[in-house]
Amino acid sequence: MKKIINQPGNFVDEVMEGIVAAYGDRVKLLDGDRRVILSNTPTRDGKVGIVTGGGSGHLPVFLGYVGQGLLDGCAVGNVFASPSAEKMAKTIKACDRGNGVLCLYGNYGGDNMNFDMACEMVDLEDDIKTMTVRVKDDVASAPPEAAERRRGVAGMVYAFKVAGAAADEGRPLEAVAAVAQKALGNIRTMGIALSPCIVPDVGKPTFAIADHEVEIGMGIHGEPGIEVRAMASADELAEIILGKLLGDMPLTAGDTVSVMVNGLGATPKEELLIVYRYLHKQLSEKGVKLVMPHIGEFATSMEMAGLSVTLFKLDSELEALLRAPASTPFYTNENI
What we know:
Strand content: 15-25%
Number of strands: 15
Low-confidence stretches: none
Distance between the termini: 36 Å
CATH class of the largest domain: Alpha Beta
Radius of gyration: 19 Å
Mean pLDDT: 96
CATH architecture of the largest domain: 3-Layer(aba) Sandwich
Number of helices: 8
Helix content: 25-40%
CATH superfamily of the largest domain: Dihydroxyacetone kinase, domain 1
């Protein structure tokens, strides 16, 4: 294993220390806890809090979206491992301003169990009202008839953005949860992997794939995809991904979408732009309007090579919320 780290067991804590050292004017640790980060942006009383959580190793998800117009707090666990229910409960308590907290996170077993426990804890101990919305945008992880089993991947960034803007508008908890769910009903993602990553504590690749192969639909933790095939050109790969996405969420002339081409950690932005070029051409020829493209690293998997494509179908409400101001150390929509 060749990584620029110190002791593998200190990896997550030292990342958190680095974030606060670099961006301490905008985010902070909760009472020195190196597994919970909060926004430093002044926020009015009564605003609905929005929190997330999940395993480390996916930066900017989850930590990178804490700040103005997005999340109020985030709990993280070890690499690819859920944070504890206690950490999640601490985050919820710190982000409650009197009108409840939305827990918005990916659909993974550990996160589901621990957030459910955390919500019960804050209800019993502090009378804090919570609601839960789980991100299930990965079309490769289950067929449409079993969509409740789908994993949450890069599409959660769009959900964070919409929910954050709705909370900033002063909407109540039920309305913030509803619009986050509405957004997720119009979000689909699919990824491809070219190489594995190495979890520091494990010290070996999470899976194996030959140099001449690509895995279609692989998850961000190395979960199996739907097909391993020979490596192909950018246009051919983009065609496969787009076909799967449109098969799950058809688009027609007059529709408006935001497209995210997300690098998984080791894919140059030039390659992401080549893929976006193909998607833009194909969708434009169908009469679909593309707005606010997101091209870059938004949800990674350590140093995995590959990418994912997310389609976010917009109506006037969702587009307005997507365009609303937002700024964190890792995300701003001012230049999107």
